[in-house]
Amino acid sequence: MKNTVVSVEHLSFSYNGYKVLQDVSLIIEENDFVSIVGPNAGGKTTLLKLILGLLKPQSGRISVFGLPPVKARSRIGYMPQYISLDPLFPVDVLDVVLMGRLGNGSRFGMFNKADKLAAFEALKKVEMYPYRHLSFSDLSGGQRQRVLIARALVSEPKLLLLDEPTANVDAAIETEFYEILNTLNQKMTIALVTHDLGFVSRYVKKVVCVNKRVIAHPTSKINGAVINELYGCDMHMVRHDTILDEENISD
Question: Rounded to two decimals, what is the model's pTM?
Answer without folding.
Answer: 0.82
